[in-house]
Amino acid sequence: MELVAFVILTTMALVSGLVVIRHRNKVVAALALAGNLVSIAGFYLLINAQFLALLQIIVYAGAIMVLILFVIMLLNLPDESRRPGVGGIQGVLGVLLAVAFVVILGMALYNATEGSSFPAATGEFGTVESVGVTLFTNFFYAFEAISLLLVVAMIGAVLLAKRRL
Amino acid sequence: MGPQHYLLVSAILFALGVIGVLTRRGAIMILMSVELMLNAANLAFITFSRLHDQPDGQIFAFFIMTLAAAEAAVGLAIVIALFRLRETTEVDELNLMKW
């Protein structure tokens, strides 16, 4: 059962990821990214992180994707032009280096976790309670700092998008 | 399914994001590829969180989500300002500071 879900989610994640980086139409790519985010939320559910899965759907697939889609449709951008240059040597080199990167990273991660398996689920892991208690005790100052960052980002976005500075 | 499978998926998704950043030329597409990479990192964080049965990795993922929201807001504001100024968002046409 878990294997079936994992295979489906992996296929969904990889296919939608490919569509995101290859499709010329930005709206299609954005919708594929939303699908990718939902499939990653599925992965979170598979490893018992329910709260983060919910957050992923609400914040990522909901808020951030709507923001991106909104800007794409607002600007009414044309499809990406096909000119040589980026598609040439840089594209080939980029793909080669990314493949080398995934081989190296995959080997490192595989060696680091070889033979290990997930501990038995406790029922405590991934609940709002366990995440929230840690967030508001051990990570309290980081939480305050990140709220400051959100305020700064909000002011910056308003200022940048204003017609006259 | 062991943790290495989840980590492998995360590595592949991250590499897809890298390819997107390196080969796409639309600024919005590059932003979306960055989101892909942030999500791959999140998946690795939560996998390790589950592996060690501690909530810390989930907290980091939570912070990355917040960061991604801030990044998307500022990045898209820059794209809008850019489009208003230059009528394009393709990054290889924006070479004013290059030479």
Folded structure, characterized:
The complex is a heterodimer of chains A (about 160) and B (about 100). By secondary structure, chain A is mostly helical. Chain A folds into two domains: about 80 residues, NADH-ubiquinone/plastoquinone oxidoreductase chain 6, subunit NuoJ (Four Helix Bundle (Hemerythrin (Met), subunit A)); about 40 residues. Chain A is about 80% helix and about 0% strand. Chain A is built from six helices and no strands. Chain B has about 100 residues and is an all-alpha fold. Chain B has one domain: Helix Hairpins, CATH 1.10.287. In chain B, about 80% of the residues lie in helices and about 0% in strands. Chain B starts with a helix and ends in a 13-residue tail after the last helix. Classes of the chains: A mainly alpha (about 160), B mainly alpha (about 100). At the A-B interface, helix 1, helix 2, helix 3, helix 4 and helix 5 of A face helix 1, helix 2 and helix 3 of B.
Secondary-structure element series of chain A: HHHHHH
Count of separate structural domains of chain B = 1
Distance between the termini of chain A: 56 Å
User: Could you spell the SSE succession of chain B in H and E letters?
Assistant: HHH
Describe the global form of chain A: globular
How much helicity do the residues of chain A have?
Answer: over 70%
The radius of gyration over CA of chain B amounts to 17 Å
What is the typical, i.e. mean, pLDDT of chain B? 89
The whole-number mean of residue pLDDT values of chain A reads 88
Spans of chain B of at least 5 consecutive residues whose pLDDT stays below 50 are none
- Tell me the β content of chain A: under 5%
CATH superfamily of the largest domain in chain A: NADH-ubiquinone/plastoquinone oxidoreductase chain 6, subunit NuoJ
> How many domains make up the coordinates of chain A?
2
Task: Work out the radius of gyration of chain A.
Answer: 20 Å
Q: Strand tally of chain B, please? A: 0
CATH secondary-structure class of chain B: Mainly Alpha
Biggest sheet statistics of chain B: none
The tally of helices of chain B reads 3
The class by helix and strand makeup of chain B works out as: mainly alpha
CATH architecture of chain B: Orthogonal Bundle
Q: Main β-sheet of chain A, in a few words?
A: none
